[in-house]
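[Solved] Which block belongs to which protein?

Original post:
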Amino acid sequence: MANKAMTASLGSCPRCHKLNVMKSDKQRCSRCHFHFHLRKPNSMQFTLAWTIAALIMFIPANTYPMMVFYSFGNPDASTILQGIAIFIQLGMLPVAVIIFIASFIVPLGKIIGLFVLMYNVKRKDKVNLKQQGKLYHLVEFLGPWSMLDVFVVAIMAAVVNLGFITSIEADSGITYFSLMVIFTMFAAESFDPRLLWDNKKVDNNK
């Protein structure tokens, strides 16, 4: 069984990684004296709440203007997709590709990945835990890179600024986008990957 360490009442300290004998769900590490739980308390509830919050923020993040492009004093507010079109028109195709990946592929993929992980925790049949572990690490790794879109807009606001001729300013959509990214990071942090191994029948050939 994949959870034989838990069955043997053994738990690893998250701070110093020492294996401790768990006398209760909450234990004090015998080496560094850090108090920790056998599993993160309410991991699934927090992960689900943060993931749903991120999904809700995804809607205004992509419908509200992300930036305002000024040309000869005339403002032109644009959403993420409209901003991508502007960058393409300006001949900044690499920037447009980066924004598209950072704005859609990474955040949406991370939200979907979290839902998949939570679904697999509830499954009682045999699953490929090695792939699930890789999916979790990918979701965790992508978190900070989702902020790349915000950094691009900030850099463009500083670089593409020729006074009255052309300038770029961030708009309200960037707030919702930032909240979406932060919520997905909280969701990934709340998720306990060890839950994937609990009550699972593992195929050792996978």
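(Second protein starts here: sequence line, then its structure tokens.)
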Amino acid sequence: MARTPTGAAVLQPEVTQAITDAVLHELAEQGYGRLSMEAVAKRAGVGKSALYRRWKSKDEMIAAVVTEFSVSRAVLEDTGSLRGDLRATLQAVLDWLAHPLFSRILPDLVAEAARNPEQARATSENIGGPRREVAEVMLRRAITRGELPADLDLELAMDVLAAPIYWRLVVRQAPAEPDYLDRLVEFALRALGAV
């Protein structure tokens, strides 16, 4: 049985979870610019050293927490049909963007990305990239099943899928009616040229 070397920091999962929850709550309440390591540590009930054992800086901490939160909510479900896969995928996007904390965090992150090109690049690579990879698998699977044209513009298709939900919830701040996703799936199927 392997022993932890003397003097090595042991990162306890329950402490990491408390810190993650604290980061999300602080982001929702204070915003990116006003969030402080001190406030996160206090809310999590830990010393600042617990944060610095995990991340080198505030920016790194926020990026890690938001990435984990966002990427873990991208679903890759194989329902056997493009319609079913789209419904599951779009439901996951809606749940992610409508999350009670994340819906308050996202607009501030978008504004920060506009001011900070490095953060914008990191967000695109660490969140956008993995989430788009999941969508691409779904679309390629539909192409293989013959449900979508072989020459489908995958980049444009992925934009078309997520954009309406983002626009409705984040930009317009309009509700998603009970039948919204079903209507959106039918619209997306036509837009994608589903066979």
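Accepted answer:
You had them paired correctly. Confirming on the second one: The chain is about 70% helix and 0% strand.
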